[in-house]
């Protein structure tokens, strides 16, 4: 998740986000993710969108073995870690202030034999994209990264740079406001977008996007 303010009126159980850790069982591994709301805010909390996306990946809806994957706004790193446990080569990214925290979670939860399949890297959306090979990823993942309207153009620019016609994009999010729908409308100007999963209990949508083939550059 991006290091930005979050509307506390929509937060679920406050006790969950203020806990120092969160535990999960994915891909036959017990995971314990550190959380640090007081220091890093939304970037250091496991949100429902990340959990639902991990469940979706674990069910095998996407073939991850040997795939080149990048996670945007990773926060605690849960989604990228699970993708690596499921066989992907993963670059897990977030802004610089979150990297030490993110790296610690990766080191604590990725087995030694898989550490080489995971890279933690700084990425501020829309900036320094030349450090990431254009269109070279099989899959782009994002959990709860669609909620601050001022970041939408930079996020779209980043998705555009990282993807090719062969890249899949999975975005897991709660649609809270009209601005979230506006991002989906922006996304549809360059990508085909379809909802592939909805978790009714958590009110989380997963959208799959793919670059529109033969679409002229805007």
UniProtKB/TrEMBL annotation:
Catalytic activity field: L-lysyl-[protein] + 3 S-adenosyl-L-methionine = N(6),N(6),N(6)-trimethyl-L-lysyl-[protein] + 3 S-adenosyl-L-homocysteine + 3 H(+)
UniProt entry tagged with the keyword DNA-binding: no
Bilayer-crossing regions: 40-57, 69-88
Subcellular location, record wording: Cytoplasm
InterPro entries registered for this protein in UniProt: Methyltransf_16 (IPR019410), SAM-dependent_MTases_sf (IPR029063)
Any GO CC annotation of this UniProt entry: cytosol
Keywords per UniProt: Cytoplasm, Membrane, Methyltransferase, S-adenosyl-L-methionine, Transferase, Transmembrane, Transmembrane helix
Pfam families: Methyltransf_16
Highest rank taxon of the organism: Eukaryota
Gene Ontology terms, MF aspect: methyltransferase activity
GO biological process, one term: methylation
UniProt-listed PANTHER family: HEPATOCELLULAR CARCINOMA-ASSOCIATED ANTIGEN (PTHR14614), PROTEIN N-LYSINE METHYLTRANSFERASE METTL21A (PTHR14614:SF14)
Assigned protein family: Belongs to the methyltransferase superfamily. METTL21 family.
Protein name: Protein N-lysine methyltransferase METTL21A
Lineage, top ranks: Eukaryota, Metazoa, Chordata, Craniata, Vertebrata
């Amino acid at each position: 998740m991006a290091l930005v303010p979050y509307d506390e009126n929509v937060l679920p159980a406050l006790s969950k986000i203020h806990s120092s850790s969160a535990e999960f069982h994915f891909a036959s591994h017990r995971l314990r993710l550190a959380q640090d709301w007081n220091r890093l805010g939304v970037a250091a909390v496991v949100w429902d969108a990340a959990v639902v996306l991990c469940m979706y990946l674990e069910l095998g809806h996407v073939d991850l073995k040997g795939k080149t994957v990048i996670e945007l706004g990773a926060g605690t790193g849960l989604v990228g870690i699970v993708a690596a446990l499921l066989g992907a080569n993963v670059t897990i990214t977030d802004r610089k202030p979150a990297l030490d925290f993110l790296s610690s979670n990766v080191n604590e939860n990725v087995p030694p034999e898989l550490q080489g399949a995971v890279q933690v890297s700084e990425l501020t959306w829309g900036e320094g994209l030349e450090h990431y090979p254009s269109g070279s990823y099989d899959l782009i993942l994002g959990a709860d990264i669609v909620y601050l309207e001022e970041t939408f153009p930079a996020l779209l620019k980043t998705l555009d740079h990282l993807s090719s016609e062969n890249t899949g994009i999975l975005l897991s999010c709660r649609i809270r406001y009209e601005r979230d729908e506006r991002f989906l409308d922006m996304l549809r100007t360059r990508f085909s977008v379809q909802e592939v999963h909805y978790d009714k209990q958590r009110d989380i949508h997963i959208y799959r996007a793919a670059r529109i083939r033969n679409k002229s550059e805007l």
